[in-house]
Design goal:
The chain is α/β, with parallel strands linked by helices. It contains 17 helices and 19 strands. A hairpin with a 5-residue loop joins strand 3 and strand 4. The radius of gyration is 32 Å and the shape is elongated. The N terminus is likely disordered. It comes from Haloferula rosea. GO terms for molecular function: ATP binding.
């Protein structure tokens, strides 16, 4: 009995010793795994330097869209998945704006991380935040992560870059108490991210207020009949700031004394509203005389002919005459020797499906893209039709004769070219019209504006509602970005056009379709 008890006690002691040893080993193993997991989180950049501010995960398209975005998130933490670097590496050799932006991002990241041995730990930015690289390794991810397991069930393809960026964002959400937000301009990725519980935002730094692109109406300012009479007689009217709030320098307004008593005006310096200074028609030698057909075109011509304004931006729906009026004003000024030449350009962005490579020389390849500009020049510089009987011409004579503007093209007085070749140029004393400017990214618009030398005039025209460039939208394209950032400067003016003049059919299509 005693021996049984002793044996029993001995067995109990042995079992207890063995159990405690196992539990101790398990605790040590658990601590080791926890320590390893914590070290792995730091090594892979999953742990933020602090848990106070937000963590923003940047997609590739954000960096391509604005290479300077690394310093625009203030005190917050920026996370760049390593898969983003792989995508940037694919673009860096392109001889395009996208390739130039990819190379610029690479240089910025190299400079930021040059003084840091662990780029996943985070380096400070100018705004007081940090930027760090984040690594997603599916073989080293926690096996017991329910959130990540659910994600892989929904999106099983682990090699797709979008999926790897979302997986890295989910890991960041697990290791940080502060909010984690994915920033991307890819609408499809935004929908995918929200489907698995990831907070997602568009890059809003260069987006304008929605009100700036929802209406193209000219601002109306009510005045009394005596003020209207004084403005009509003297050409000037000074109004206190309270009566012209939100009207910036060189903005066009419509003074309204009654429904039938209205006059357009431009806000000049010191709060003065001044009368428009426009000719009866834009006269082009041996061509047509173009008369303004509505209020918007009158304001646009005033801005185009004003020597003190060196940048004009213009919004307008299809058929409002923005390109035709701008080219006509450029020809008018050029023939009056205000400028040494006229340059008309547009970005090469196709609408709809591509037709493949075009044959011929560079000029022949670019002709389909630039045909609308040739059409405008042909219309404006075509001699007026003669009255009376026409003389009989030899067959094919009309086809062999050069058009008036083609001789000026050969002399270099008029240039019609694609925008792709403007980088590195300096453009002095020319009237430069950029058509379809809504297709530009903000960085491309900056490139164009910085090419202008002294005594040159830049005209950006376009319709923010007609965009084929996948990298911009109606609120973030180069046209509205330039207008928003430069408005109020003494040498900048903006004119909206809201009335179509092409035809009743075109006007109905622009407003109803």
């Amino acid at each position: 009995m005693i021996q049984r008890v002793e044996g029993s006690q001995s067995n109990l002691f042995e079992e207890s010793s063995d159990g405690s040893t196992k539990r101790g080993a398990a605790r040590k193993d658990g601590k080791k795994r926890a320590s390893s997991k914590k070290a792995q989180a730091v090594e892979f950049g999953l742990k933020a330097p602090s848990q106070v501010v937000k963590n923003f995960v940047l997609d590739t398209n954000v960096l391509i869209h604005d290479p300077g975005c690394l310093n625009r998130f203030k005190e917050h933490h920026l996370c760049i998945p390593v898969d983003v670097l792989a995508e940037l590496d694919r673009f860096k050799s392109e001889q395009s704006e996208r390739g130039a932006n990819a190379r610029r991002v690479h240089r910025q990241l190299t400079e930021l991380f040059s003084s840091s041995t662990a780029i996943t730990a985070g380096v400070p930015t100018e705004g007081g935040g940090t930027v760090r690289m984040v690594i997603y390794d599916p073989t080293a991810c926690p096996k017991n992560s329910e959130m990540l397991n659910h994600f892989h069930r929904v999106f099983p393809d682990r090699e797709r870059v979008d999926h790897r960026i979302m997986a890295a964002t989910l890991l960041l959400m697990e290791h940080n108490a502060a909010p984690v937000i994915l920033v991307t301009k890819d609408i499809n990725l935004q929908l995918k991210a929200r489907a698995v519980g990831i907070d997602c935002e568009d890059y809003l730094n260069d987006k304008v207020d929605p009100r700036e692109v929802t209406t193209y109406d000219i601002r109306r300012i009510p005045v009394d009949p005596a003020e209207m009479q004084r403005f009509a007689s003297s050409g000037e009217l000074v109004l206190p700031h309270e009566r012209r709030q939100e009207v910036v320098l060189n903005q066009y307004v419509l003074l309204e004394a009654s429904e039938k008593q209205t006059m357009p005006a431009r806000l000049a310096s010191e709060g003065r509203l001044v009368r428009l200074q426009i000719p009866e028609a834009l006269k082009i030698p041996d061509g047509i005389a173009l008369k303004p057909l509505n209020l918007g075109q009158r304001c646009l011509i005033d801005a185009l002919l004003n020597p003190e304004i060196s940048l004009v931006t213009c919004y307008g729906h299809a058929g409002t005459g923005k390109t035709l009026v701008a080219v006509a004003a450029g020809l008018h000024e050029m023939f009056n020797r205000k400028y040494t030449g006229l340059t008309v350009s547009r970005p090469v962005v196709a609408m709809g499906e591509q037709l493949g490579f075009l044959p011929g020389t560079m000029e022949e390849k670019m002709r389909p893209w630039l045909q609308p500009i040739h059409d405008a020049l042909d219309l404006l510089m075509r001699p007026p039709k003669a009255t009376g009987p026409r003389r009989k011409q030899k067959p094919g004579a009309e086809n062999t004769a050069k058009k008036p503007y083609e001789e000026l093209l050969e002399q270099g007085i008029i240039e019609v070219e694609a925008l792709a070749y403007i980088r590195g140029r300096s453009i002095p004393n020319r009237f430069f019209v950029l058509d379809e400017a809504q297709q530009l990214t903000p960085q491309e618009a900056k490139t164009v504006v910085t090419r202008m030398s002294r005594d040159s005039k830049l005209v950006l025209v376009g319709d923010p509602a007609q965009i084929d460039n996948p990298y911009v939208d109606s609120r973030s394209n180069g046209l509205v970005y330039t207008r928003n950032r430069l408005k109020g400067l003494p040498f900048v003016a903006h004119v909206p056009l809201n009335r179509g003049e092409r035809s009743e059919l075109a006007e109905a299509g622009a407003t109803l379709l």
